[in-house]
Amino acid sequence: MAAEREKIYECEVKRRRVKAGGGYEPFWKVKPVADALVDADTEFRCKDCHGAVKLLGKTNKPGSPAYVEHKLPEDSAVCANGLLFRKATDGREPGVSAHPVE
Predict the structure, then answer these.
(1) Which domain holds residue 54?
(2) Is residue 81 part of a domain?
(3) Mean pLDDT by 10-residue block, N- to C-terminus, for the chain (102 residues)?
(4) Domain count, the chain
């Protein structure tokens, strides 16, 4: 039996925008992972807990969409989209990562 995997199909990607006074400022934008790959984005984080994620499933096989999963199990345990959070039976509330990606 295959192990159950955490698959999150939307994430935040780091972008830059022009500041009113000149120069650029970073900001995070929610995107589907497949779109982020097409746009060649390179910095990702979880859209719910802001924790670090790793990019998986980018092989472009038919029926195999790209996705991300949490790098740290403790992020998965507090994130509303995390596999460990969804499996928990202790009535926990979703939260943010102890180590958010800035």
Answers:
(1) 10-87
(2) yes
(3) 79 94 94 90 95 83 84 94 91 93 94
(4) 1
Tokens of 75: 């992020």
Whether 5 is covered by a domain: the verdict is no
Residue 43's contacts (CB-CB under 8 Å, 6 or more residues apart) are 13, 14, 101
List Cβ neighbours of 76 (8 Å cut-off, separation of 6 or more).
Answer: 6, 69, 70, 82, 83, 84, 85
3-state secondary structure 29-97: EEEEHHHHHHCCCCCEECCCCCCCEEEECCCCCCCCCCEEEECCHHHHHHCCCCHHHHHCCCCCCCCCC
Instruction: Look up the pTM and report it.
Output: 0.84
